[in-house]
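Posting this for the archive.
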Amino acid sequence: MGDVLAGNHAVWEFDRTTDSLIIRFARGIRTPRLWHALGERRIPLEALSGVDLTVGRRDTLVLHARVRVGADPLMEAAAGQLREVCDPYRLVLPGGGGEAGRAAAFTEALRERLGPAEPAERFLVRAPEPPATLKAYDARLSFDGGAVTLRWSRTGATSAKWKAGDQRYPLAALAGLVWHSPERPGGHLRLLPREGAGDPRPDHDLASAVFGVGYGGVHESLPFAAAVLAALRARAVVASGAGVSGPRSWERIQHLAELHSAGLLTDAEYRALRDRFTAGA
C-alpha cells in the first residue's frame, strides 16, 4: 500500500500500487453527515488535476485536492454548492510534531502522478451508494438503476402534483438533472426530461422534488443525485457506440467492462449491452 495522513475526521492513504488516493471518513459528532454517508472512497489519481498544501486556522495544515471537471459524479452534481467544511477533497491536519514535513512529502508524491488539467471524458470516480429512498418535503424518490420514481406526499405536495399522480422517469427519457442544495433557499432536485420543459416552479414541476427543513439533507440527496447522474452518463457513453461494428465494437465492449467494474452498470445491464455489441462485432 502507501503513505498515510490522519487528519481531523478523515484519513488519506496514497496507494502506490494502483495510483489512487483512498479516503476514509471517520464517524463522529463533528464529522459532516455527508462524510458519514460516503464512508470510504477510492480516487484514481488521474481524476485529480492538482493538490495544494496551505496553512489553516490555529496552526493547522490544509491539504486540498482539485478534481478534474467531469471526473467525479458527486462533485458534478454538487456544482460548487458544498460548504468548505463538507468538501470531501479537503483534509485538515494538526500542526506540529513533524506533520508539515510528512504532509509536504505526501503532497509531492501525489503531484507526480496527477491527471491532466482538461475535463475528463467520462466519470473516473465511482458514484457513492445512494439511499434506497430519498424523502423530500413533497415526495419520496427511488432509483432502481433504470428509472427514477417520484411518489407524492399527501401533506407536502401541491394539488397540481397530487392530481397528476406519481411519476416515473426511465433514464432513456432524461437528459440530466440539477441539484439545488437543501442548505440554501429553494433547495430541490429537478430531473430534466428530454421532451418538454416542466413548470419553472419546483413545487409545481412534475419532475422536481422540493426539499425543506429535515427533508432531502445533503448527506442523502447529493449521493442520490450523483448515482442518477453517473447512470445517465454511462448510458450516454454506451449510446454513442450504437451501430458500431468491427474492431470498434470490441473497444466498446472493453469500455462496458470498465463501467461495470466501476459500478456504473448493473450486472443485467452489462450482460445485455455486452451481448448486443458482441453480436455486432
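The longest strand covers residues 48-55. The two ends are 39 Å apart (CA to CA).
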